[in-house]
Specification:
single chain, 398 residues, alpha/beta, seven-stranded mixed β-sheet, 13 strands, 42% helix
Length: 398
């Protein structure tokens, strides 16, 4: 197949044409500063407000509860640090999980070094947080719970409604990192009782470098970036007007097409899972089989090194990612895969394929056949696989 097959949409998505078209005028024509009072600035301000309204409607919030950021990581940092600082007179205990994105985990580490106490909850073999264990972890000084809506590696959807109800009943702030979920599954605040929610534009066909933090009206947290009065005095800095406009356009498109995309992606996801797990021996699906993102497939292959698999897939025109952190220079496998109980040697052989509505069954068939070819080649080069086959053969003969 003489084209690139892109299956790494959890990392970033192609910027939608609607987003690009909406952004272009704000680079060269309507380029005014949105904080200025003259017409050129007012045009930019109007476009920012329209995007804010679109995004607010997409989750059932009011526009005054949406604050634009430079992305999901900033939104996570803001939610945790500002909430912790605002509530530290009430207590200094935070609850999160062991499979959060590093934007949350590293922020929790930052807070621990500043005197806060953090409980990192275990998850089950499918990556699910158990609400009863979360409630049991609550202390008299617990001030914040942060649990991601959907895991970025294995796609597991968390019981956000139950967790939110526990937090609300106990009077504790609840933040969810919804970067992977927003625009891919319904995220309605009428159903999910959350106080803060993070999202990012480039995961849904918007531009990179733009995100938002939803802060429920009445929640008292501090400003994160100090300076001007942008974002109602809570997040200083000249507004990224093109980015905000592009995010709004992408969000509008994502909401309009959500139902049909979920149906199509779920079908392709299940087809891909079925073919891989049935046709390639010694592999396993990671994450919950049903409670998972519509476009997420994460599989571990025994006797395979994930980095080698990725390189060889790239040579065949397939863009994917590994469940292992080896590609970022770390010798350790994914913290998520270790948390669900995978041994190191299997976690290192993991592959994440994340689809979009642009993918086709023909592409998926090519991907499966290519993975079969590569795993067979890599295993034939593996001493561990050779020993495994010899032992199994001896056992069968015995």
């Amino acid at each position: 197949m003489n084209k690139t097959i892109y299956l790494d949409n959890a990392a970033t998505t192609r910027t939608a044409k609607e987003a690009v078209d909406a952004m272009l005028p704000f680079f060269s024509e309507s380029y005014g500063n949105a904080s200025s009072i003259y017409k050129l600035g007012a045009d930019s301000k109007r476009a920012v407000n329209e995007a804010r309204e679109i995004i607010a409607r997409s989750i059932g919030a009011s526009p005054q509860e949406i604050y634009f950021t430079a992305g999901g990581s900033e939104a996570d940092n803001w939610a945790l640090i500002a909430a912790a600082e605002a509530c530290e007179t009430k207590g200094k205990h935070i609850i999160t999980s062991k499979i959060e994105h590093h934007a949350v985990l590293h922020t929790c580490d930052y807070l621990e070094k500043r005197g806060f106490s953090v409980t990192y909850l275990d998850v089950d073999e499918n990556g699910l947080v158990r609400p009863d264990e979360l409630e049991a972890a609550i202390r008299h000084d617990t001030i914040l719970i942060s649990i991601m809506f959907a895991n970025n590696e294995i796609g597991t959807l968390q019981p956000i409604k139950e967790i939110g109800e526990i937090a609300r009943r106990r009077g504790i702030l609840f933040h969810t990192d919804a970067v992977q979920a927003y625009g891919h599954v319904p995220v309605s605040l009428s159903e999910y009782p959350v106080d803060m929610l993070s999202a990012s534009g480039h995961k849904i066909g918007g531009p990179k470098g733009i995100g938002f933090l939803y802060i429920r009206q009445g929640v008292k947290i501090r400003s994160f970036i100090h300076g001007g009065q942008q974002e109602r005095g809570r997040r200083a800095g000249t507004e990224n007007v093109p980015g905000i406009v592009g995010f709004g356009a992408a969000a509008g498109k994502a909401m309009d097409t959500l139902s049909e995309r979920v149906e199509k992606e779920t079908g392709m996801r299940d087809y891909l899972i079925r073919r891989i797990t049935q046709e390639i021996p010694y592999c396993r699906l990671n994450g919950d089989r049903v409670k998972r993102l519509p476009n997420n497939v994460n599989v571990s292959f025994q006797f395979i090194e994930g980095e080698s698999l990725l390189i060889m897939l790239d040579m065949k025109g397939i863009c994917a990612s590994s469940g292992s952190a080896c590609t970022s220079g770390s010798l350790d496998p994914s913290h998520v895969l270790l948390a669900i109980g995978l041994p190191h040697e299997i976690a290192h052989g993991s592959l994440r394929l994340t689809l979009s509505e642009e993918n086709t069954t023909e592409e998926l068939d090519y991907v499966v056949e290519t993975i079969k070819e590569i795993t067979d080649k890599l295993r034939r080069m593996s001493p561990l696989y050779e020993d495994f086959i010899k032992k199994n053969g001896e056992n069968r003969q015995g």
